[in-house]
Design goal:
- Chain B: This is Response regulator.
- Chain B: Keywords: Phosphoprotein.
- Chain B: Pfam families: Response_reg.
- Chain C: InterPro entries: Bact_Chemotaxis_CheA (IPR051315), CheA-like_dim (IPR004105), CheA-like_homodim_sf (IPR037006), CheW-like_dom_sf (IPR036061), CheW-lke_dom (IPR002545), HATPase_C_sf (IPR036890), HATPase_dom (IPR003594), His_kinase_dom (IPR005467).
- The complex is a heterotrimer of chains A (152), B (124) and C (719).
- Chain A has 152 residues and is mainly beta.
- Chain A has a single domain, classed as OB fold (Dihydrolipoamide Acetyltransferase, E2P) (Beta Barrel), CATH 2.40.50.
- In chain A, 5% of the residues lie in helices and 47% in strands.
- Chain B has a single domain, classed as Response regulator (Rossmann fold), CATH 3.40.50.
- Chain B contains five helices and five strands.
- A five-stranded parallel sheet of chain B has the order 2-1-3-4-5, sandwiched between helices.
- Chain B is globular.
- In chain C, strand 18 and strand 19 form a beta hairpin.
- Chain C folds into five domains: 138 residues, Four Helix Bundle (Hemerythrin (Met), subunit A) (Up-down Bundle), CATH 1.20.120; 124 residues, Alpha-Beta Plaits (2-Layer Sandwich), CATH 3.30.70; 58 residues; 179 residues, Heat Shock Protein 90 (2-Layer Sandwich); 152 residues, OB fold (Dihydrolipoamide Acetyltransferase, E2P), CATH 2.40.50.180.
- By secondary structure, chain C is of the alpha+beta class.
- The chains are: A mainly beta (152), B alpha/beta (124), C alpha+beta (719).
- At the A-C interface, strand 4 and strand 5 of A face helix 12, strand 21 and strand 22 of C.
Chain lengths: 152, 124, 719
Amino acid sequence: MSDQGQTNDLELLTFRVADQEYSLDIMSVREIRGWTRTTPMPHAPDFMRGVINLRGTVLPVMDLARRLNLPSQETNDRNVIIVVKLQGTLTGLLVDAVSDIVAITEDDLQVPPDISSDPQLSVVRALTVIDDRMIRVLDLRAVVPATSDEAA
Amino acid sequence: MTLTVLAVDDSRTMRDMIRMALMPAGFTVHLAEDGIHGIEVLGGINPDDIDAIITDINMPRMDGFGFIDAVREQDDHRATPILVLTTESSQELKMRAREAGATGWIVKPFDPAKLVKALQMVAG
Amino acid sequence: MSEQNDPMAEIRASFFIECEELLEALQDGLQELDDGADDPETINVVFRAVHSIKGGAGAFGLEALVRFAHRYETVLDEVRAGRMTPDSDSMKLFFLAADHVSDLVRACRDEAPIPEATSDELLVRLDALLGDEVEEEEADAADFTPLGFSMSLDLPEIEPELNSFEIRFKPEQEIFATGNEPATLLRNLCGLGTATVRCNTSDLPDLEDLAPEAPYIEWIISLQTEAAEAEVRDIFEFVDGLCVLEITGTKSGDDGDVAPTESIETEVEVEQAIAAPTAIAPVSVPKKPQGTKPASDTEDSGADPESKKAAAPAAKSVVRVDLERIERLVNLVGELVINQAMLSQSLDEAGLSPHSDAMNGLEEFQRLTRDIQDSVMMIRAQPVKSLFQRMSRIVREASAAVEKEVRLVTEGEGTEVDKTVIERLADPLTHMIRNAVDHGLEISEKRLANGKSRAGTVTLMAAHRSGRVIIEVTDDGAGINRERVLEIAVSKGLVPPDVQLTDGEIDNLLFLPGFSTASQVSALSGRGVGMDVVKTSIQSLGGRISISSEAGKGTKFSISLPLTLAVLDGMVVNVAGETLVLPLNVVVETLSLGPDDVQMLRPGAYVVKVRGGFVPLYDLGVMLGYRAQRKTDAGAIVLLISLEDGSRAALIIDGIQDQRQVVIKGLDDSFYRAPGIAAATILGDGQIALILDPADIIAGLGNPRGADIMLSERKIANE
């Protein structure tokens, strides 16, 4: 859904995780919620913060810092959960704070150097520069682990 | 000319088909699921208000022949036209239906317009 | 007929639903016949089911279905008429044919390719049962043409040339017994064109000689019409043989003797012509007013159709509702329950007196909510019968594939289960049944050698037990070969070579992913589906599966499922700062641990003494990874839980909050649902609490992750 060649316009939601700037294609973002306490899932990987109540449905929430192997920050009221939809499934991403929505074109994207070796970069599909700041564009499919095919 | 008809068939699909065929023509359609149910439904309708009866043959509890018998036993329905719905067009079945007191027969599957016409002809 | 407007599509959809019911009746009937039923109604039911499917199929032009059903029905009719007594081979064929009708129905419904080859093959075998009668029946088959209409009342347009007919019509006595009215016939005739009706009453006897039911009157009709002779004859189709009918055609323009010579003329006066003789009948036999009705009927028919709407009892009706609408209702009720819990909590916190109007009202609200919830759940409940019937087909096919004789026994077909559960049970059950036939049962020779009956038995049982639905698949085969199972598990690296496992633990290895006992791929296995998939699907329904086996006696798989997928009576407890929910029906009692109650079996494994017996003790906080093992468990609160299989366990918790009904929210694997976690729910404060599956906690093993935990915990314990 993200790699459509002919239309260059791309809107990114930028946000901060462990003092780094990341972004996501706004098309995959459903909503942004304030931080609420999560219910931990026993024996889940440590990047899974647990689950929260999203208007009556159970939403799994991932700590994006831990997912990206960055130092995890103490959670505070400024933290937000970005609710994304991938292949019909909603997932929450816990980030430090949301910064901005920026419009760029595909031409502004640069391929990140040597993706495979750096685990942090393997989920980054491109880099872009906005106001002299480097912003990483996340590949959502790499961030959110594939769910089993037979689900639902 | 619109009529009031009682249709007796154990197949829901057939009942739906009959209703579908007759309602657009302005007919009032009463439905029953088998012979016994048919008699019950018939008993609840003023005899003067029933113009014709359509009945299937193969039905549980009371089949079409039994139903026709039971209808004909009622003085009020001695002359009520009864059409038999049958998938077989065999002469034997028609004759059996007639012996039981059926007015005529319609071979399933039927064309809705023709069912309307057939009813109008026997009940006209 | 050909137009695909919405009502037709609706009826078509309804037809396929009805087909499912008819197929169910067909299966039932055949089973009863196979079990030796010989009452006429059973074969009638079987016959009617096929007959009705054929009838509906004809209406929708499903020729492949009509063709097969017709000839199947022909054979069944022979049985019905007592001309044929089915032996066990023909019963088998009848079952196969029923399965095939089912396939055809589905193929037609889904507009999938029609398995014509199977139709042909089965028809040859069905026809063979008929022997000599085949040809005659073939002719009959050809006679049945889908979408045809034999009553040719309305032939295609013909040349608007005027034909003249002279029709002599003399009804015979029998005509009146059939409800056919000369008056109506004549009126229909007049409808074809311009008619002149003469009435010949010369046969009319004197009043004293008049037989009440005998018709004495002859009509001679001169008809000028655009209609062809066939059309004219069609009007008399129903009275053919009940009257003297002569139709003579004269060429148009040949306007011969139209002029009537006697009696009444002009079409307007037809009523009178007819009314005249019939008016006599009431005089002689007052109780038989034949013929008067149509006349009076014409006067008011159509004039005021409203007045005809009699208050007849409506046909028994069942409302078919789109499942989505029910889902929506279920969800809304779920929300209502949450909402009510929130309201209840805030009223509680407001410190209202329990006797205040608000609290009383709340109590009533809770009761109503619960009633509504029950009622909504009832809508979704349906008997497992349809599911079991599908399984009887699986048994037939599976046993044929591996050439074993297998009898399927079903019990508790009327047990009602949530519709979604039934649908989602089909695949796992199919697999289990195939397994039972393929791996569970021995071949006949081996059975006989072991003193067993030649045919193996697979039993499929459903029952409601302590608030859950139990479904069991039992075979009377050889039982699980545990040595072999362990060998395979070790060879596949599923367990360490030196592992010591109990019988039950070995049996549970069957549920590990990648495990397959088939030493060679048979016609049934090798589908790449193992018992692990069965277990996963059962768990996704909030259920669990267990296995028990006895060498030489057989194997039993038990599935335990929640009655509904939506609500649960739960006990809300605190563990290490988290809120958890346990199904209330497993909690037997609450204990407070004394200093001497806990005994260590081995490091990390403890038991608690409960009234002389020992029950394994688990610290939920540790099991779920919320906290480390505490120094002492003395003083802790313990919930004693007991499962249907009689196994018991004691769970350490920190405190009990409440007992309440909770709405179940499913968790799939994307949530990293750990073993022991069945689902989640939303509490009154909006927080999510996890719902525990106690059996899974106790079993531990079985699930791959559970096995890891158990094994690693043992390792830790051994260090």
